[in-house]
Structure formats: C-alpha cells, structure tokens
C-alpha cells in the first residue's frame, strides 16, 4: 500500500490559466469522457463525495469564502480534508468560479471528481432488492432527479440502457443533490439489457417489470416483495422500444385521470419505485 501524497495549494487569478482552461473544458461530454472526470458544485457535494470515498482531484474555492465568517472555517476544513486525500486546492476569483460553472452567483466551492461506473457483473440481487433501468433517458434534470429518488426509496442502483444523457453532466449532478455518490450506476446497450433481463429471471429468480402506456397490469396490483425486482422505464419521447418491452415479463400501467397523455418520466419513476418499495418504507 502506498502512502497518499498531500495535494498542493495554489492561488489562480487569470481565467486564461491552463489549469482553469482544462477544468472549464469539462463542461463538454467528450472532454469528461476522455479525462474520466466531472464537476460538482457546492460545499455539500464536495463533502458528500469525499465521505462516500469518491476521488477528488481538485477542490476549487473562491477567495471570498475566506473573507466570509460563515464559510471560512467550513471551506478551510474541506480544503484540509481534500489535500490530505491527495487532491489539489485552487483559490480563485468570483470571475473564474462563474466561468467554470457558467452561471451568475456561482457556488463558492466546485470540485473536480473522478467518474465511477459499476460493471454489470457486480449486480447480484438478493431477496427483494430493487434495481431501476432507464431506456435512453435524454434529459439530465430527469436523470439527476431519478437518481435522487432511487436513493431516497432504497433502490440498489440505476442501469442506463442505450445512448443516454450523461449522468456526470453538471445539470444532472446538480439534480442528484449528492445521491450520485450513493447510487451505483451501470451502463448497458439495449442488446445487453435483453440478455441481462433473461439472467435476472433465470439466475436471480427475479421479475422484470416494464412501464408502458399500453401496460395491461395496474402497477399497484403487483407483488414486489417476493423476488428481486427490475423496473424498466421508457424514453421521454418514445417510451420503451419493442425489443425492451418484449424483454419484460409484465408491463405495468400507472392509472391516470385527466387529459394528459402520460406522466413525466421522473414522476412516473417516483410512483413506480414508491409502490415497489412500499413494504420497506
Ligand atoms: N410518448 C411516450 C410513450 O408513448 O410512451 C411517453 C413517454 S413517458 C413521458 C416516459 C416514460 O414514463 C414511459 O415510457 C413510461 O416508462 C413512464 N410512464 C409515464 N406515464 C406512465 C403511465 N401512466 N403508466 C406507465 N408508465 C408511464
């Protein structure tokens, strides 16, 4: 085991500084993918990430935080923790913080963290464990909200099926409110998911429930307590593909009144998860 080398501390004043340029580049998915890094805003997310064992590369904080009586102690304690874990600390101006997060009134703290995905073979459900799968989720706000809801309701993890929005996009990370650090994320192609659903039934003796506007079963009438549960939600615009719907052993409908065609994806997920986890709450 090698000892951790304490991170460096540095003050940066120019937005043109190459370190700041690299950090700002993480606004783009291609750069996040290449570097395996992402940005998280705020003191809470930096604290949650480190406490949950996620690797923090750089903690950036505003110089002004050191002049604020309410913030100074917290930010300094966070900086000490980050450096002890090997992360660097950058002290920057408000202008630089705004340019990194691309919004006015930026948070005083931003962290650069290493991305983390769980591999499909690490999914080993027991009893009535519940996992959630999302078909081609497009909206980062929906994805972040769903990850937060999965955390709140005790789902074991979220499977991203097909081409999805990036869970490490700033907007998605924001919407998770820190749940990102507690909910394992797995990626799979549609084809791989069809095989995984088969394995779920055969190896884990579980059930796969798709949610569908043409579902024949009322979502409240299903027994979610006697086996591992895999819940599959459809894409915001198109719903589930035919192949994914066929991979499910049942299709559930959430009853609706009124004139709307469907529920928002994140709302439908909350309703399904609440029902599937009702016995445990
Ligand atoms: N036009 C899409 C369609 O035809 O499926 C609407 C998709 S809806 C906005 C997004 C997803 O939320 C659906 O694929 C389904 O998984 C879930 N959903 C929304 N309302 C639902 C309902 N009433 N019953 C079951 N699932 C629902």
Automatic annotation (TrEMBL):
Q: Which residues form the RNA 2-O ribose methyltransferase substrate binding domain?
A: 39-119
Q: Please give the superkingdom of this protein's source.
A: Bacteria
Cross-referenced InterPro entries: Alpha/beta_knot_MTases (IPR029028), MRM3-like_sub_bind (IPR053888), Ribosomal_eL30-like_sf (IPR029064), rRNA_Methyltransferase (IPR051259), SpoU_MeTrfase (IPR001537), SpoU_subst-bd (IPR013123), tRNA_m1G_MTases_N (IPR029026)
Q: Which Pfam families match?
A: MRM3-like_sub_bind, SpoU_methylase
Gene3D superfamilies listed in its UniProt record: 3.30.1330.30, 3.40.1280.10
Q: Does the keyword Acetylation apply?
A: no
The UniProt record lists the keyword Nucleotide-binding: no
Q: Which GO terms describe its biological process?
A: methylation
Q: Which UniProt keywords apply?
A: Methyltransferase, Transferase
> What GO MF annotations does this protein's record show?
methyltransferase activity
- Family according to the record: Belongs to the class IV-like SAM-binding methyltransferase superfamily. RNA methyltransferase TrmH family.
Per its record, how is this protein called by name? TrmH family RNA methyltransferase
Native source organism of the sequence: Pseudahrensia aquimaris
């Amino acid at each position: 085991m090698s000892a951790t080398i304490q991170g460096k501390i540095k003050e940066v004043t120019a937005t043109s500084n190459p370190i700041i340029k690299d950090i700002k580049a993480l606004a783009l998915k291609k750069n996040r993918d290449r570097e395996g890094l992402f940005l998280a805003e705020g003191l809470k997310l930096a604290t949650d990430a480190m406490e949950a064992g996620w690797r923090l590369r750089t903690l950036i904080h505003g110089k002004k935080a050191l002049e604020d009586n309410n913030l100074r102690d917290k930010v300094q304690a966070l900086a000490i923790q980050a450096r002890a874990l090997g992360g660097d600390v950058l002290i920057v101006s408000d202008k630089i913080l705004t340019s990194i997060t691309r919004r006015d009134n930026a948070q005083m703290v931003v962290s650069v963290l290493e991305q983390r995905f769980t591999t499909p073979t690490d999914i080993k459900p027991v009893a009535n464990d519940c996992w959630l799968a999302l078909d081609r989720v497009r909206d980062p706000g929906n994805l972040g909200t769903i990850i937060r809801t999965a955390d709140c309701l005790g789902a074991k993890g979220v499977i991203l099926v097909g081409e999805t929005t990036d869970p490490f996009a700033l907007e998605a990370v924001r919407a998770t409110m820190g749940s990102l650090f507690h909910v394992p994320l797995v990626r799979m192609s549609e084809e791989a998911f069809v095989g995984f659903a088969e394995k779920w039934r055969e190896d884990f003796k579980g059930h796969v429930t798709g949610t569908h506007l043409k579902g024949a079963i009322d979502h409240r009438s299903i027994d979610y307590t006697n086996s591992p549960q895999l819940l599959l939600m459809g894409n915001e615009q198109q719903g589930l593909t035919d192949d994914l719907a066929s991979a499910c052993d049942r299709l559930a409908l959430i009853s609706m009144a009124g004139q709307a065609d469907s529920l928002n994806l994140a709302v439908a997920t909350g309703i399904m998860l609440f029902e599937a986890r009702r016995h445990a709450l």
